[in-house]
Design goal:
mainly beta; 5-stranded antiparallel β-sheet
């Protein structure tokens, strides 16, 4: 004999994960369905899973839901039995009878831990806490075996679940299309999915075109090494990309001390680490330009004897720098060259000019001392001249004298001009 029952439901709460992709629900009216967060306009699916100890012939039940929900579909699991579905506001009734081929929702026949008995779809039409509850009764088992006993399904296992159905996205955009990040650093990309309902229920998938350069997880990009990688955010068939350039900053700079003579040049030897630094360019500046100057290419020129420090700084913004000690030495004369080593003065009172030049050309002290070994025969008008200048020698009386030109830098280099004064 078939039993008829009126069914009213107890509240069963089910949990579901909702991923909000790159936006917030601030502009939407927030709701909760059996504890699952969603928004007004979303569609939720209520699933009822049933596992029975054997076959059964008759069942009936009802599905109750709060006023903030609108039922838009109730689908019973596939069966050869006869089912009916009567819907009214707040409650949906269902029942079924199958004498010839009893329903079988046992683990043995279906081979799954949870077997779906029915699914119901609802549209969320109001915010706040909303509930869906179900109570299903097996009226009779096969050949009169009754599973119903004291208001429970004897030996049956029930489980309910609520999930937010994915809302179709119209577009997905990233907050940037290009980005530059240092190796070893992280960068967060934010995806905006529209409309907002889609953002509430869509999961953004993130991929990198070159994981050796940069990886990505939930929009957080981790820079691995110098290079480029395209980060792609995907929702359904929609994609948005960002080209990420990873740069390797300079970690250290090494230089070698430089020694140079005044007037001469020398190149600073610079080693930038690591070897794969994206920008190895450096700048140079001198602490004392009166001692040594430096070009943008790192060429140091000695100005005068002394010490200066050249600051070598990375141009990549890393702030790394070092200092190169430059010692400028005094270049002394190695030779005194004369325009004449022998000269003749025709008579007393007449003069002759002898040009003296120091070698090398960059001698720091360019002064030359001029001295006659016999001033009664040849007199020197100017006893100190500069390299490249001429000394004026005047004949005093007939005879021969030696005029010595000596570098004043202490090198003791000299040259002699033999001067003969005639009548």
């Amino acid at each position: 004999m078939k039993k008829t029952l009126s069914v009213f439901l107890a509240v069963l709460m089910a949990m579901s994960i909702i991923t909000i992709a790159g936006t917030t629900a601030s502009a939407l009216e927030v709701a909760k369905v059996n504890g699952v967060e969603c928004s007004v306009g979303n569609t939720v699916t209520f699933t009822y899973n049933l596992k029975t100890p054997g076959k059964f012939e008759d069942f009936q039940g009802s599905l109750s839901y709060s006023a903030g929900l609108k039922i838009i579909g109730l689908n019973m699991a596939e069966t050869k039995g006869v089912m009916s579905n009567i819907k009214e506001a707040g409650t949906a009734y269902y029942n079924g009878t199958s004498y010839q081929d009893p329903y079988d929702y046992s683990l043995g026949s279906l081979g799954a831990p949870d077997t779906v008995f029915f699914t119901a779809n609802f549209e969320v039409i109001a915010g706040g806490e909303q509930t869906i509850t179900n109570n299903m009764y097996i009226i009779s088992g096969v050949n009169g075996t009754d599973y119903y006993e004291y208001g429970t399904n004897k030996g049956c296992e029930e489980k309910t679940d609520v999930t937010v159905d994915a809302y179709p996205a119209d577009s997905i955009k990233l907050d940037r299309t290009t980005a530059t990040v240092n190796a070893g650093s992280k960068l967060t990309l934010r995806a905006t999915v529209t409309p907002e309902l889609a953002a509430m229920s869509s999961v953004v998938l993130w991929t990198s075109s070159n994981t050796s350069v940069a990886t990505v997880a939930d929009g957080v990009v981790t820079a691995k090494k110098a290079g480029t990688a395209t980060i792609t955010a995907t929702v359904g068939d929609l994609k948005a990309t960002c080209k990420v350039t990873v740069i390797q900053k300079v970690t250290s700079i090494k230089v070698s001390p430089v020694t140079v003579y005044n007037g001469k040049t020398a190149k600073i030897k610079v080693t930038v680490s690591p070897s794969n630094a994206s920008n190895k360019a450096v700048t140079y500046s001198s602490s004392n330009k009166s001692v040594a100057t430096v070009t943008s290419a790192g060429v140091v020129k000695g100005v005068k004897p002394g010490t200066a420090y050249i600051t070598v700084k990375a141009k990549d913004g890393s702030g790394k720098y070092t200092k190169c000690k430059v010692t400028v030495k005094q270049q002394k004369a190695t030779k005194v060259n004369l325009s004449k080593t022998k000269a003749t003065i025709a008579k007393k009172g007449k003069t002759v000019k002898i040009k003296a030049t120091l070698a090398p050309s960059n001698v720091y002290n360019k002064s030359i001392n001029v001295k006659s070994d016999n001033t009664k025969i040849v007199k020197v008008k100017t006893v100190k001249i500069k390299s490249g200048q001429s000394a004026t020698l005047t004949g005093v009386k007939k005879g021969t004298a030696k005029v010595k030109f000596t570098a004043a830098d202490g090198s003791k280099k000299s040259a002699i001009c033999k001067v003969t004064v005639k009548k």
